[in-house]
Every structure is written in C-alpha cells, then in structure tokens.
C-alpha cells in the first residue's frame, strides 16, 4: 500500500510535519508513506482561459498532481489558523480542483496537531467540507479524526509520540484507514458508470 502524506503548512518548523514523519517511520513495515511539502507551491490564481490553464500547470504543482495520482490513498496533516486550514493548503487544493481533479474518489485520512488543547478540530471539519466539494470529491472515512493537542510537548527528541495512549489511538485509526482504502478501491473497481472530470470556471 502506497500513501502520499501532505504537510498542510508552509512553516519550516511544524508539529504536523513531525506527526507525518512519525507515521512514516512507525508504519514503515506495513505501508509506504511519502511526504510532500506544499510550502514551495505557487499561489493559485484562476485563469480565464481554460485551455491555457490546462497546459500551463507549474512544475511543482504537476509534481503534486502526479504523486496524488500514483498513491492509493492520501493523508493530510493540517494545523488550525483562525478556526480554518492554512491558506497555503487551500491554495494547493484549488490547484487540484481546477486542473486534474485527481483527488476525486481518492481515499483521504485527515490528521492534525495544534499547540492548543483541541488539536485542530475546527480545521479538520473545515477541510472535510472542502474535500467533499464536487470538484474535489475525495472519499473520507466517516467518523475518524486524529487530534493531537498541546503538540509542542507531544514528541520526544527523536520525533516519536510520547503518549502510549495517543500512539494506540493513531494505530487504530490508521489501520482502519488501510482497510477503508482497500474497501473503497474494491467498490470503485465495480462501478459501471465512470464519473467524468470536467474543466470549469467559478465565474460561471
């Protein structure tokens, strides 16, 4: 099983990145998790000419699209800024929805870490709403969230989660997600009518 983990921030120091790095190491014997940094992506700007937008995708954006397409599932770690996801993550999702829409029907797991006690709960709800939009159409496992509060003190010097309880919680959620990925893949393989990706403009 091959997953792509998206670091949903442009901060050079982030406990969300640390969380994904921990997952990458902790589940290495079960799956492959590759990390992707969105901090170097250009800001999304809508173009009036859809044909131009189709051929003029920035190289770093195309790399993200290619890696999403190859992955069997996606993990997104988001911090919480003012009860919402960071602008840089919203911009990355806009690139996806406006170009290849390659997240459509892709299994997605959302995790999040924050310095406060709520562990990015509002941002995760915000992200679920965005991913459920028609132009993204991701498949999210119901009733699943991993919230890591007070994340500045949650890791030891080697980047491992200190709390055995949180590790056990993460293991349960992640293994359910692996099963969810398998079930979703099987379900989609039996679909008779394939949904078409279409170009669009929000100005219409």
TrEMBL record:
A Pfam family that the UniProt record links to this protein: FMN_red
InterPro entries from the UniProt entry: Flavoprotein-like_sf, FMN_Rdtase-like_dom, NAD(P)H-dep_reductase
Domain (NADPH-dependent FMN reductase-like) ranges: 1-151
Family affiliation: Belongs to the azoreductase type 2 family.
Protein name: FMN reductase
């Amino acid at each position: 099983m091959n997953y792509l983990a998206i670091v949903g921030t442009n901060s050079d120091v982030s406990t969300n990145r640390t969380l994904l790095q921990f997952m990458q190491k902790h589940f290495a014997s079960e799956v492959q998790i590759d990390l992707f940094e969105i901090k170097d992506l250009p800001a999304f700007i809508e173009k009036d000419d859809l044909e131009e937008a189709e051929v003029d995708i920035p190289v770093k954006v195309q790399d993200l699209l290619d890696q999403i397409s190859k992955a069997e599932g996606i993990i997104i770690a988001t911090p919480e800024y003012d009860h919402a996801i960071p602008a840089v993550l919203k911009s990355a999702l806009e690139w996806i929805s406006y170009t290849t829409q390659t997240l459509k029907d892709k299994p997605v797991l959302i995790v999040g870490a924050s310095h406060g006690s709520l562990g990015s709960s509002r941002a995760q709800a915000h992200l679920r709403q965005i991913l459920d939009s028609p132009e993204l159409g991701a498949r999210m496992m119901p009733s699943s969230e991993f919230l890591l509060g007070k994340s500045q003190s949650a890791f030891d010097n080697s980047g491992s989660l200190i709390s055995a309880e949180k590790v056990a919680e993460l293991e349960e959620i992640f293994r359910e997600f692996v099963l969810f990925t398998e079930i979703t893949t099987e379900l989609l393989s039996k679909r008779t009518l394939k949904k078409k990706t279409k170009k669009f403009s929000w100005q219409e």
